[in-house]
Structures are given as structure tokens and as C-alpha cells.
Amino acid sequence: MFGPFRGTSPLSGGLLWKIPFRLSAPQKARQRKRLRAVDTVIAVVDNALRKQGNTLKEVERWKVEMPREEEMRPKDKYTVFDRKEKRYRKGIHKVPKWTRVSQRINPPGF
What we know:
By secondary structure, this protein is mainly α. Helices cover 38% and strands 5% of the residues. The protein has three helices and two strands; from the N terminus they run H-H-H-E-E. It has helices at residues 25-52, 57-65, 74-78; strands spanning 79-81, 89-91.
């Protein structure tokens, strides 16, 4: 119908999820800051345990397997492997809970 109470078209109605194609500069800065914060927590826990003469298997495994923020390539900081994507990479901001889950390791060659 026409007039002030006409129905909305299906394309313009509903919930839109607008995720930009690439990360903005402030998002990248916050991502680097989060990575560095995790690195400092691991270092503090490791130093505290070492002073007590203890070690944790999980902390040692993290230090061996996970690269530090300064050791990571920009490609690994801001993108993750995704086998469904065209070039096997997608922006980290498109991963659910990307601010709370550590995504530092990708398959070799990708």
C-alpha cells in the first residue's frame, strides 16, 4: 500500500551485520595492545612461578608454541587461516569473539 503506513520491503528491513572489509588503524592498534598484554601476563606468571621454584606445563607450552607479538608477521596479527575463503585468509575481526580468543598459530605455508 501507499501512504505513511506502508510495509517495509524485505531488503531494507531486518538486522544488518555491517562488518568492514579491513581493520581500521585503531582496531589494529588495539589488537597489538591485546597481544602485548597477553605476552606480559605470561611473562609475569612465569617470573612469579620461577621465583617460587615452580613451573606450569601450560605456561611452558605457551612460551614454546606461541610467538610473541613482536615476532609475529602483520599477516598473522590481523588475519587467520580459513579454508573456506578464496585466498585461505580472513580478517581476524570476522572471527567470533576475536577480542577474547588467541589466534596466533596458522598452518604452515599459509
